[in-house]
Write a structure and sequence with these properties.
Elements (H helix, E strand, L loop, with lengths): L8 H19 L6 H8 L13 H21 L7 H17 L2 H9 L6 H27 L8 H13 L1 H4 L8 H16 L3
Length: 196
């Protein structure tokens, strides 16, 4: 199949993913067709298959790339010996990273149901790896007497849900800036798990 004049593999591939992410975040996976994605990119519908075998793979790749970037960034942070400082940094990092990627975050959470079982398992493994980073901080805090938790797994999921929820309502033009919101949430998280 001939490539559309002016398209280049190194630029069109990322443009396909960007267009798919934008459209899926706006309309939902089920409502977006490959033809719509092609029109958004400015290529013929058949040309999309030079960059992805199908829409399912495209969705999976969007989620996988989001999770891999998230993990690479958080795992590159230097270790902190104080569990309170580590939890504070995790909360601020999570909010900041996710606010910069609202479409990717929306897709990563809302479109899981549209993955095939194999793709779902792969994304869930990446999500568990991220959760384990937070769980390790909480576990360390409990062991040192800094944190008190009724259930480690539940606390891990509750904190991630709380921090991710910021992406649903935060707007840069609102009364509080990103750093201020992140600081407030970090304080709330620390108070939630603090040992009496």
């Amino acid at each position: 199949m001939a490539r559309t004049a002016g398209s280049h593999a190194e630029t069109t591939g990322p443009r396909v993913r960007e267009a798919a992410q934008r459209l899926i975040a706006r309309h939902g996976y089920a409502a977006v067709s490959m033809r719509q994605i092609a029109a958004e990119v400015g290529v013929q519908a058949g040309a999309l298959y030079l960059y992805t075998p199908d829409k399912q793979t495209l969705l999976y790749d969007l989620m996988r790339l989001h999770m891999e970037e998230l993990l690479a960034t958080v795992e590159a942070l230097p270790p902190l010996d104080d569990p309170r400082a580590a939890l504070d940094r995790f909360a601020r990092f999570h909010i900041g990273h996710h606010l910069d990627r609202p479409e990717a975050v929306f897709i990563a959470y809302m479109e899981l149901r549209n993955l095939t079982p194999e793709n779902f398992a792969a994304i869930e493994a990446l999500r568990r790896r991220y959760e384990e980073g937070l769980a390790a901080i909480l576990r360390d805090g409990v062991a040192r007497g800094a944190f008190a938790l009724p259930d480690l797994r539940l606390a891990t999921r509750a904190i991630i849900a709380m921090l991710t929820g910021v992406t649903h309502w935060f707007r840069d033009m609102g009364p509080m800036g990103r750093d201020e919101v992140a600081a407030c949430y970090a304080e709330m998280v620390l108070k939630t798990v603090a040992a009496p």
